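Same chain as my last thread, 326 residues:
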Amino acid sequence: MLIQHEFLQGAPQQILSRAYSYFKTGAVKSIDESDDRIFASVQGSKTKPYNVQIQLDDNNCPQMAWCNCPYGSRRGDYCKHIYAVLIYYFTHIKKGDVAPTNPIIQEPEFKPASTVMLTDKQGRDNNFVSVVETIDANLSLSLSQTKRDDGKKGRLVFVIEDSSSYYSSKSHWSIHAAAQYLKKNGEPGRVEKFRDYKITEKFTKDEFVFLHKLMNNREERAPLSLHLGYLLKKQLPNIYVNAQFGIIPASFEEIQKTEISFRIAGILNNSYVFKPVFKVIGEKGNTIKLFSNDQVDCDGFLILSIGENGVVYYKEDDELFYSIFK
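reply #2:
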């Protein structure tokens, strides 16, 4: 029934059978391979597809795997959605077939010999991006300034915020595009909802690519964990955090260690009840205290928490940290 692969042969037969059924009926809607990691979406019983992430070792066996379905990735076991993705991967991609397009992680489709630019425009009825192809040996990107009828100026920014209520879950950090008004003296002002006509200032190719990623996600808020790698690699300049006391500039620190202490939370049956307090320490020495793992977003292999000072604390691919906060 299934392709011959050592990892799949050792899987629970009941789950594997259901995963194979998902595979045969086309439930694996998208899959993308990046370095040693697989990103995929699988249509389950819910309206929205489930997101799956899998990290492979040198033998193409999963080191870690995660799915946001209710079953998830319990210790030592994987759900049918994860196995369905693995079946698809071992059946098609390793044979050189073309994988379906991944709507979650997608690069702009630039042709090798193209020039891409944003053209001048006035008013709000014009298209934001105008792609002009020319015969050019190298890809180049020209981002020209735009004008508004009212003379106001604004720049493209990206805002990180806690979208727990939006996702009906515990802490869930997301990121979205926004427009920041520029005062007459050039200082940054209020941050508003993104509208193409509000962006008048030049921005970089990396910012353009990231905007493209978010727009192709077709969601107002995109999970931060899906894009954190790009943000860390490209060091985009205008990233903000919607913190408790307003929108402030963001910074990023990898978690170096976590200290755990205990506090008295109450008395039950004449005995003290203790609850843990997590002190997270970043690479630059900044710290944040967490009184519940509900304050932490364990999305896939990332552990994320954001302080009131705009520091984004993260740790990637660390099973010990993941087990503490999961």
